[in-house]
Amino acid sequence: MTALQAITFDLDDTLWDNHGVMLRTEEGHYAWLLEALGMWRATRQEAPLALGYEAGLQDYLARRQQFAKDVPERRGDFTWLRLRALEAQLEAEGLPRSAAILWAAAAMNEFHRLRVQVTPHPEAAGLLAALGERYQLAAITNGNIHLKRQPLAAYFPVAIAAGELLAPKPDHTPFLTALAKMDVAPECAMHVGDSWAEDILPAQELGMLAVWISNDSEQALPPRVHRIAHIKELPGVLERLNG
C-alpha cells in the first residue's frame, strides 16, 4: 500500500454533533435580529416591523432557497445566501437599502458567534494532536462555520470552506485544493466524513482512502473505503492499514 501522508476531515457530524448547534444558531440569530431591530426602530420613534418570528423564519428560508436556484454557482455559499436573503427581506419590510445591508451583516455576525459554539467529541482533540505528529491534516467543510474560530482550528494548518470556492462537496475541487496545499497525491491521502455522497464517493473517485462515519451496516463498501461508528475508532483503522 502507498504510504499515507495526509488525512482530511469533514467537520460537522464528524468531529462534533451539529444538529443542536444549527438549531440554536438558526433560531438565535434571527430572534436577535428582530429584537435588536425593534429596539433600534423604537429609539427612532418608528413603527415596529410587521414581520413576526415564525413567518419571518419561513420567509427567510424561502428566500435563501430561491437565491440558490437563481444563482446556482452560489448554492453552497451559505453565508452569501443568508446575507442576500436577509437584505431582501428587510428591504421588503421597508428598510432603506443601506440599513438592510447593515442589519443583515449584524445578524450574520451573531450567526457566526453562535455557529462556532460547537462541542467536539471528547476524543477529537487528543486524536488530532496525535495524528498531526505523523500526518498532514486538513479540514474540508461545506458548512459556513468560521474555520479559524472553530475549536479545533489549531490542528488544521489547511482548512477549506468549499462554499467559498463555489464548489461544494461532492465537487472534487475542495479535495484537490486541500491536497495541492499539502503537496500530497490523492493516493497518499485519506478523507474522513459522515456523508456517503459528499465525503466518501468523491474521495474514492479521486483515489483517496476514505473512512465513513456511519451506523449503516447495509451499505456495501468498495475497495479503500472503511466504516466506523465514531471518530474514536479511526486509530484502529490506521493500525490495520499500517498492519
Automatic annotation (TrEMBL):
GO BP terms in the entry: riboflavin biosynthetic process
Could you tell me which Pfam families the record lists for this protein? Hydrolase
What's the cofactor? Answer: Mg(2+)
Q: What UniProt keywords apply to this chain's record, in alphabetical order? A: Hydrolase, Magnesium
Q: Which GO terms describe its molecular function?
A: hydrolase activity
NCBIfam families named in the record: HAD-SF-IA-v1, HAD-SF-IA-v3
Name listed for the protein in its UniProt record: Putative hydrolase of the HAD superfamily
- Name the source organism: Vreelandella songnenensis
